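Journal club prep, notes for RB
We'll compare a predicted complex against what the paper describes. Inputs for the 5-amino-5-deoxy-1-O-phosphono-D-mannitol case:
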Amino acid sequence: MCGIVGYLGKNDCVENIKEGLLSVEYRGYDSAGISYIHDGAIQIQKRVGSVANLFDSITCPTDTHCGIGHTRWATHGEVCEKNAHPHISFDNRFSLVHNGIIENYAVIKDGILKDIPFRTNVDTESIVNLVAYFRIVNPKLSVLEALCETLKNLQGSYAVAMLALDTPDTIYFARKESPLLIGKGDGETFISSDVLGLGKSCSEYVVVPNGVYGYINKDEVKAFEESGSDVCLEFKSMISHSERAQKGDNAHFMQKEINEIPTVIENTVKIYLNEDNPISKVDKSFWQDIEKIEFIACGTSYHASMVGAMFTEDNAHKVARTHLASEFVYNPPLLNKNTLCVFVSQSGETADTLHAVRVAKERGAKSLGITNVMTSNLASECDVCLPICAGVEVAVASTKAYNAQVTVMMILADFLRDGDYKDIAEKILSQAASIDLDGMWASAKKFVKRVANSSSIYFVGRHMDYITCLESCLKLKEISYIPCEAYAAGELKHGTIALVEDGTTMLAIVTEPKLISKTLNIVEQAKARGAKLIYFTSLNLKDFAVSEKDVMAAPKVDVELSPLFSIIPMQMLSYMVSVYKGYNPDRPRNLAKSVTVE
Ligand code: M6R
């Protein structure tokens, strides 16, 4: 959902912005652009496509020291060079990059700015034009004051960085809801949507508080509330500088991230087994008097939460339910101080999930975040936050983060039971150590052509396998574009079986011995109507007329841990189908890694 970066310092700004953009490019692959001041004018260079494509096709001066950059996931206006950021004001005196959505941009354009020429139909242009407009209408206003006036007129969400021709060595910034961080190094200041986009030379950083605006120049970083009062930014030491993720020997990040899963699970468990573990750092009173638990998330994190809720009810014997964040905000359940709301998000920046946090807090519930990004909004807005320790996830399709989220939620469920999660942690560790990744890739590979050549696919399973169906289905559809649906096996006969015709591909996930006959009886009904079956199982299906060639091997793991490990071959299958069809699994069409708009 767009990444922004900015650099001001003693070194070449273009090189630093390029590095920053490459690190936040996962936030949007539609277009990229850069702006700096040179030869007495604001310069903007932008291109449709990747950051690499931008820098391959432009030449920039090497003596500029202040600039801003952007990588776009389009919200308003089609993907084209004109709509790419940075945007320039009608008087060519300001350039601006933006992450978020200006909900009232049409009102601004047709109202206060009705006589101002717009070059695009991108909401961002209303911001930069408002700044220019306020400066023209009232030349006594400083750039900062004009920015402040502008912010008062905006509805929606934004993180912005702006250059002004009149103050060439200054970056202006503002933030409401969308993420923004500032990092400082020796004679250098960086600004970015993500800690990853801050330069390697940063020694300290701060998350810009919500509703704050300000400026960066070579002497200082100043921040203000909307009222104009000063905000003291408390910089923290950079804990560690994550290297920009590299694919290594893998063809894609998704492949690399799937291959990391056993290590990620292992690392996560070990961190939670440490004496100084994340749960031990939480004040004990937080865990007291919890009567019920509501898990809230989106997409893959929602599916991981379904596993979490199931585990929590089974193990902690507490009422636990799962909610889509985007629905929770309109129809929250009854919440009170004895309700624990668990917000699960890889990025920690998903707008729907953050909105849900605010709703839950307003209603007095306790909030617990589970995230991969401890510098995210989620981490700062929740009462307590637990890390999943998955390492940077670049591919848009989430894989290793799912496994890490499920690991943490399995641990949490046992912790909520009696405070002791050692047994489950050790069980997970030992199963992770026995994972045969090569065997999984080989087994999934046998089904690539069949799946890739299907016009649609139905995933069916029961209980925990149903959750694996949902996540497998999401993975496959988002990177292969094959229409597919996941159904609780028992629901098929209540309507969906009407869609089954000769040759329909159905993938039955059967990992729980007690459910073999119940699931396969349903599958038989679909088979009798022409469905072609793939069975994903490690169980003996000898009592059913199942041919070996239709069996895709599921990992042999303790049934309780099935959702944690069964998903891996399905992630691999989706990846290989996407590659087989000639797509780039890391950058699926229309999607961005981090969904920072509602
Ligand atoms: O960062 P989050 O975990 O909050 O993201 C939630 C979803 O946007 C995300 O899981 C999305 O569904 C992925 N593309 C799934 O692979």
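Talking point for the session: The domain at 3-237 is CATH 3.60.20.10 (Glutamine Phosphoribosylpyrophosphate, subunit 1, domain 1).
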